[in-house]
Amino acid sequence: MEAFFSSIFGVTVAEIGDKTQLLALFLAARYAQKNAVVMGVLVSTLLNHLLSAALGMWLTQVVSPAMLKWLVGGSFIVVGLWLLLPDKDGDPDNKWLKYGAFTATLVLFFLAEIGDKTQIATVLLAAKYQELTMVVAGSVIGVLLANVPMVYLGEMLMKKIPAAKVRLAACILFCLLGLLTLFGQSPSW
Q1: d(CA 157, CA 25)
Q2: Where is the protein localized (predicted)?
Q3: Which residues lie closer than 8 Å to 61 by C-beta, 6 or more apart?
Q4: Which residues are CB-contacts of 56 (< 8 A; sequence separation ≥ 6)?
């Protein structure tokens, strides 16, 4: 259960203020079908994070435990520091918008997640915990917890949540996970 709750919390916090959250807000403003946007976020995140977690688990098979400990611990710290940098709002590729709310969200959200902080966090969490199902379920729930409110209440929430403070909290969380991985009890991979 630690993998599940760590994935939910870590990914939710990392997603706040992320470019994919801004994309969800854009898509919700563009389309009246809010449920289709949410389903697009769900399916694209499930596919993306399933592949990411599988990559994280594969890494544990090809990298020595000692090297993996330093790789995962150091990467958590790098992701934590990366969270301090705000994302730039890039305009989504408009060619996908003509396919409707679900398809546009599915494709654009999947593409936006590639190389994203939450995708990398999912790889790291899977490598750390070796629990594919719990990490994927937790990371998908984390993305949904951060994005579904954006779809339905976005404009109001943007005025009330200070993104800089959320990024700082996420930075501290990931750096702490990194330090615990590096200097804590020996992980079970």
Answers
A1: 10
A2: Membrane
A3: none
A4: 122, 123, 124, 125, 126, 127, 128, 135
Phi, psi of 18 (to 5 degrees): -75, 160
- Of the two residues 40 and 155, the one the predictor is more confident about is 40
d(CA 131, CA 111): 25
Structure-derived torsion over alpha carbons of residues 177, 183, 184, 187, reported in degrees to the nearest 10? 80
pLDDT in tens, 152-172: 887 666 567 666 776 677 678
Task: Look up residue 173 and give its two tokens.
Answer: 């969380």
Burial letters for 149-158: b for 16+ Cβ neighbours within 10 Å, e otherwise? bbbeebeeee
Which one of 64-68, 127-131, 141-145, 152-156 scores highest in mean pLDDT? 141-145
* Residue 77 to residues 57, 89, 101, Cα–Cα distance (Å): 19, 24, 36
